[in-house]
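Hey, can you fold this?
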Amino acid sequence: MPASIFRPLDKKAAGLAFVLGLATIAAAWGSQIIGGLYPCELCLEQRMAYYYGLPLLAAVLITWNRLPLMVWYIAMAIVTAIFAWGIYMGAYHAGVEWGFWPGPTACTGIGEAMSFDALSSMEPVIGCDVVQFRFLGISLAGYNALISLAIVALLGLSIWAQARRHKRG
């Protein structure tokens, strides 16, 4: 195969991973702000992959042709590892929801003494084992694990295409 086939594939796969991640975190915020779904502690923890991974991936995409190749590989490996952590967090949370293992103790209560007056101004505390929304039998945590897996696959494809291109060309 000619090396030119792999040239656009590396950046397109990374760009698609970015768009997928951005759409996912936007949907998470939309479900909270517009949809009224309150995130639990594990939901908030799952968002960290997007908060750290997307800005780094954006920086890689913006500086694509100006980065030294080794820096590019290191940055892409870091982004991939961040979203691999996202897979773990989504799968862990889905397992808590299904009752396969216990969740963190912080997800089961408020953790401190409160007055009755403070209760009226407090947002609801959602347990990590409470599923607020399912589609096709999969919770949002399960979808997050699947989306993170797709992002990792796209980033892996990008790294593979870049390596293949430089090996041949």
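Oh, and this one too while you're at it.
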Amino acid sequence: MARGIDYGNLMHQAMRGLIQQVLADVAAHGLPGAHHFFITFDTRHPDVQIADWLRTRYPAEMTIVIQHWFENLMVDDEGFTVTLNFGNQPEPLRIPFDALRTFVDPSVEFGLRFEQHEEDDDDGDDGDDDGGGDDDPPTPPREAEVVRLDRFRKT
């Protein structure tokens, strides 16, 4: 009985662990030097917790910046919570690691992108489905790859 090695899933777990470790260190000690993060996540993920007005404004994905002003950064095995300032309005967010699409630290030209496999069926979806059915299949893990940083460079 032969079984294969699921390198994509193993890579996903490793990159998720790396992000978890980095965020846990920042939660404990703050951001060192010029480090800061652009984190893009899927707002449709069932375990994402954001304000209704943010979900309306960002129905598919959202990019947050952890840099100058953030509070209450807490990290666990499933994801992280953080309070960010949106136009002088503090908003708490809960982001599971499985919802991440990109994690970039432009100060050191480091970035990861998590591939989306389930989106092919949802391209026309407007995000109105609340996902209330219990028969939905679980979301498969995404593969990780290094992301090009050119789009984050300031010129």
